[in-house]
Design brief:
Layout lengths: L9 H14 L4 E6 L4 H15 L4 E4 L5 H7 L15 E5 L3 H4 L1 H12 L3 E6 L11 E4 L5 H12 L7 H4 L4 H8 L3 H12 L4 E5 L8 E2 L2 E2 L1 H16 L9 E4 L6 H10 L12 E5 L16 E5 L11 E4 L8 E4 L4 E5 L12 H10 L10 H11 L8 H4 L29 E2 L3 H5 L16 E2 L27 E2 L2
Parallel strand pairs: 1-2, 1-10, 3-4, 3-6, 4-5, 6-9, 10-11, 11-12
Antiparallel strand pairs: 7-8, 13-14, 14-15, 16-17
Helix pairs in contact: 1-12, 2-11, 2-12, 2-13, 3-10, 6-8, 6-9, 6-10, 8-9
């Protein structure tokens, strides 16, 4: 009010938000971060589709090829500890130890059991110590290298064979700088694989978004990796398919919830309303589209929140129940561990309050009730009820006891092992090869993702502050 933030009651704030969103008459867009729960994301999409009559929701941060992972991601039943002799793991454009250290340990263990580990990157990373093939390409040529491996792996890709004819080992070697023999040997190993998992990251010098739209260049690596697993027949079954190194805990889940509710972002200017939940685009160096009214739903007073007309206080995962879906599409429950601070509410509950003040009659009293609707409406989530997610089983090594040797794990898993969802190809058996012609970038700039990096949440920790590093930019000639 009058250019300054003032405290308000929940009723006052929610009524104002509902009124302004209704007045927007469909000229409204949403930004949704990928650290919120599946339940939050589902109701956010439902609010936009059913109440606000808009499908313009942008899940953040933007990642390329997430729809391809939804269709061709590792099959149900995948367990990296089962990989060994005869299996192949291809790692492309990523520093696994920095992006996903647990995956790094599991891939290292698979290599020690005899799996063929192939690392393709523009620079050396720690995983190169355990590979049988290390392929060092020029930054910006990762997709060409993947097609070179596919060309060397098989001659059965009829739908894209004309394109692949331009990507023989000799041609790809001249483009990427990788030795022709190394490409041929790694490709033949892929062609002979019993099981194949392709792990890909985001160390490629292409912007994901240009002018508010996802760039084709950003998708080229994900599409190349998808073509590789589809053309070689390594999709739709356990221990085969794509395994992305997404930036946050629920990148996959948020996308799947939004796609289930029809969300589809398109560039929008001069909006009448903008609703932002669980993300700080301004703090990440982005600009907000012009809007007459901005609502921010957050845990902390972020740089984006400072530009809002209304700020709605949410609670963290530790103060509520919910679920996340990881990159393997395993849905896992988390449980309330602390009482909520102040007057915050779970994101799904706030979204429901906005909907009901807009004339709806939603009746979700718990996050479990939201998941019940998800299970009844989203085909791949039909088994993901809270009781099913809470099932536990004996795990190895044992935690120890009066008659057992301590196995190195401090606690029993009492929260449930979760449930791995099928990929879309397992549900409808549909696959296709699509071609995006790879381009080349001459500047060679990449932005490696580091584990101990600054972020909206971690920056709140004074204890962790000494471990944080500043942003890193690398130039690969």
């Amino acid at each position: 009010k009058n250019g300054k933030f003032v405290e308000a009651t929940w009723d006052e704030a929610l009524n104002l938000v509902a009124d302004r969103l209704k007045l927007a008459n469909g000229s409204v867009a949403g930004f949704l971060g990928d650290r919120v729960s599946n339940e939050d994301a589902y109701l956010f999409g439902k609010l936009f589709r059913d109440v606000l009559k808009s499908n313009r929701i942008s899940n953040r941060p933007h990642v390329a090829g997430i729809d391809l992972v939804q269709r061709y991601g590792v099959g149900k039943g995948t367990n990296l500890k089962d990989l060994g002799r005869g299996d192949v793991i291809l790692v492309v454009a990523s520093d696994v130890e920095e992006s996903a250290p647990i995956y790094f340990l599991r891939l290292k263990a698979a290599a020690e059991r005899g799996a063929t580990l192939i690392a393709a990157n523009s620079r050396e990373t720690k995983i190169d110590r355990y590979t049988k093939h290390s392929l060092r390409y020029k930054a910006g040529t990762e997709a060409q290298l993947v097609y070179g491996l596919l060309s060397a792996a098989s001659n059965q890709q009829s739908a894209i064979s004309d394109h692949l004819s331009n990507y023989n080992a000799s041609k790809v070697a001249s483009i990427t700088g990788v030795d022709e023999t190394a490409i041929d040997e790694a490709g033949k190993a892929i062609g002979a694989a019993k099981n194949l998992i392709v792990v890909f990251g985001d160390e490629q010098p292409y912007p994901v978004m240009q002018h508010g739209e996802q760039s084709n260049e950003s998708r080229v690596l994900a599409q190349a990796c998808a073509n590789l697993v589809v053309a070689t027949g390594h999709v739709g079954k356990a221990n085969n398919g794509l395994l992305p190194l997404w930036p946050h805990n629920n990148t996959q889940g948020v996308f799947e919830m939004l796609s289930a509710t029809g969300a589809s972002w398109s560039n929008a200017d001069n909006l009448k309303a903008l609703y932002i939940v669980g993300t700080d685009p301004i703090g990440e160096g982005q600009h907000l589209p012009k809007s007459d009214f901005v609502v921010v739903q957050e845990l902390f007073m972020t740089e984006t929140a400072h530009q809002a007309d209304v700020i709605l206080p949410a609670v963290s995962f530790a103060e509520r129940d919910g679920t996340f879906t990881n990159a393997e599409r395993r849905v896992q429950r988390y449980y309330k561990a602390l009482p909520p601070m102040g007057e915050g509410h779970p994101d799904w509950d706030i979204i429901q309050a906005v909907a009901n003040r807009s004339g709806e009659k939603w009746g979700f009293f718990t996050s479990e009730a939201v998941m019940d609707e998800i299970a009844s409406t989203v085909p791949s989530y039909q088994e993901a009820t809270y009781p099913a997610l809470a099932v536990t089983k004996e795990e190895w090594p044992p935690v120890g006891g009066d008659d057992l040797y301590f196995g190195g794990t401090a606690y029993d898993n009492r929260g449930g092992v979760g449930l791995q969802l099928p990929s879309l190809i397992e549900l409808d058996n549909r696959s296709e090869l699509n071609w995006i012609e790879p381009g080349t970038r001459s500047d060679g700039l990449i932005f490696p993702r580091k584990l101990n990096r600054h972020g909206t949440l971690i920056d709140q920790s004074k204890v962790y502050e000494p471990r944080l590093i500043e942003h890193v930019v690398e130039y690969q000639a």
